[in-house]
Specification:
About 75% of the residues lie in helices and about 0% in strands. Helix 2 (about 40-60) runs antiparallel to helix 3, helix 4 (about 90-110) runs antiparallel to helix 5 (about 115-135) and helix 8 (about 185-200) runs antiparallel to helix 9. The protein is elongated and about 60 Å long. Mean pLDDT is about 85; it is low at about 1-20 and about 240-244. The protein has ten helices and no strands. It has about 240 residues and is mostly helical. It has helices at about 1-15, 40-60, 65-85, 90-110, 115-135, 135-155, 160-180, 185-200, 205-220, 230-235.
Length: about 240
């Protein structure tokens, strides 16, 4: 049973994030930032990057992930440079976090799964910074999804301690979202984190919670396709299988 659950789980680990980020409007110009420490060259490069990113978004929305990825990769160096120069500017930090997220989604659309993890890892501190300053559910859910995916990666590498660290943080955010709004999206984010956490640790409370939630969501038809294979195993087992 453990092997069957892991097989289904790996399919989810390879997929795009459950939560979809809605990128904010790019900063109009780096020059508009108060107490601007930037050089003229940085400002010019950043403004060009904003235009390039916008072109990438249009391509991605049209289903052209290859063009989108090319645009995002071209835009990222200047955006990273601006954030490095002014790391406390939340507008630019949020922008970088979303560009990295969009690049990850474009890679996923092209089947380039090996490229996802570095982008998730790079974006993680920026999303944490955004959620600390702006803990709205949309931001929190993106962070939850990224943490869960990184936990999935650690679990496939047999790093259960590392996976548990990511899952624990993801669960704290997922439970907040469900407490605020117990809709299908939020409950699936919680279920995703619980599925991973139940395999990475011996926490009986987590194992009971994931089995109960799996049964409830299968019964009401709200479990999403990515979670369904594992949820069916967990719901039928009465408890999550122990990690070995």
């Amino acid at each position: 049973m453990t092997r069957a659950l892991l097989a289904g789980f790996l399919i989810f680990a390879a997929g795009p994030l459950a939560a979809q980020a809605t990128a904010p409007s790019p900063p109009a110009s780096a020059a508009a930032t108060p107490a601007n420490p930037f050089t003229a060259e940085q400002i010019t490069a950043f403004n060009a990057a904003v235009t390039t990113f916008t072109e990438g978004q249009k391509a991605q929305q049209a289903g052209d992930n290859a063009t989108a990825l090319t645009k995002y990769e071209a835009a990222l160096p200047a955006i990273r440079d601006i954030v490095k120069a002014q790391p406390d500017n939340l507008t630019n930090v949020n922008f970088l976090a979303n560009v990295l997220y969009a690049a990850a989604a474009a890679n996923a659309g092209l089947g380039k799964m090996d490229a996802l993890v570095p982008l998730y890892e790079e974006s993680l501190p920026y999303w944490r910074q955004v959620v600390t300053a702006k803990p709205e559910m949309a931001n929190r859910n993106v962070l939850t999804g990224i943490l869960t995916q990184l936990g999935n990666v650690r679990l496939t590498q047999q790093d259960k301690a590392g996976a548990t660290t990511f899952y624990t943080e993801a669960l704290s955010f997922a439970r907040q979202s469900v407490a605020e709004k117990a809709d299908a999206q939020n409950r699936n984010l919680l279920l995703s984190a619980l599925i991973g956490a139940s395999q990475a640790s011996e926490d009986e409370a987590v194992k009971t919670e994931v089995a109960t939630l799996s049964r409830e969501m299968i019964a009401d038809g709200t479990v999403n396709p990515a979670n369904k294979p594992a949820a069916q195993i967990l719901a039928g087992s009465g408890a999550a299988p122990r990690a070995k």
